[in-house]
User: Which sequence fits this backbone?
């Protein structure tokens, strides 16, 4: 059982099908350091499997071929090739508008390797029109990596940021010692902390827990699985509608 403060998704890994539909912001350096246990396995970045990736980079050069376009990209952390397959239709030509050398683009696709050379198999590529998107992507990549590595951020008091504030209509917390849950994965501990410190008569649903922990929609399956594990272990229970949950303490 995981006992150290590891990331949300490391605590409860995504299944192969879920990984394939996930989208993670990355840098070129992360892709260059990615590992693959075998040719049919998912790529792993910093200990976590990745599916689709998105990156923002400067277009160094463009090579136009009959069946594809090859973009040589540089994001400041490294360089990588992005390859986009094309056809000869007019509609296909329209999507390249604004994508020229010495501009920034956002590329979405999957990491591939051919002949010991890594490249991004680009499913979508578009020009960057707002320069703030470049800096946003850098921060998004850093934030995602830190959450996966360390779990959701906490404040000076050790509480997960974004938890619900106290209300006169909420039952007061009974001062439960969270140390008794030290053997649980970090995500399950954080979920229990939300349920314990912010009790309600009806309990919290999955979306409420996600908002409290500031987890995006991408993590819904992971959070739901963690709650089910807590229920199976007797640490939480579902209320009348089986969509809301409360901690099994009082």
Assistant:
């Amino acid at each position: 059982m995981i006992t150290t403060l590891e990331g949300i998704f490391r605590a409860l890994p995504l299944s192969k099908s879920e990984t394939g539909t996930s989208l993670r912001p990355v840098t070129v350096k992360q892709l260059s350091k990615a590992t693959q246990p075998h040719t049919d396995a998912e790529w792993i970045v910093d200990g976590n499997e990745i599916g689709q990736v998105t990156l923002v980079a400067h277009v160094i050069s463009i090579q136009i071929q009959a069946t594809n376009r090859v973009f040589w990209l540089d994001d400041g952390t490294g360089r990588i090739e992005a390859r986009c397959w094309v056809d000869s239709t007019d509609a296909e030509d329209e999507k390249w508008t604004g994508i020229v050398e010495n501009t920034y683009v956002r590329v979405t696709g999957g990491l591939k390797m051919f002949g010991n050379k890594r490249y991004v198999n680009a499913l979508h590529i578009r020009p960057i029109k707002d320069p703030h998107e470049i800096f946003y992507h850098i921060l998004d990549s850093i934030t995602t990596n830190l959450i996966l590595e360390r779990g959701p951020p906490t404040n000076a008091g050790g509480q997960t940021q974004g938890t619900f504030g106290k209300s006169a209509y909420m039952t007061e917390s009974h001062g439960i010692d969270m140390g008794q849950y030290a053997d649980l994965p970090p995500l399950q501990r954080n979920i229990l902390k939300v349920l314990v410190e912010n009790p309600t008569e009806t309990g919290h649903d999955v979306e409420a827990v996600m908002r409290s922990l500031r987890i995006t929609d991408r993590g819904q399956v992971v959070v739901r699985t963690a709650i089910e594990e807590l229920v199976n272990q007797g640490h939480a229970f579902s209320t009348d509608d089986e969509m809301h949950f409360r901690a099994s303490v009082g």
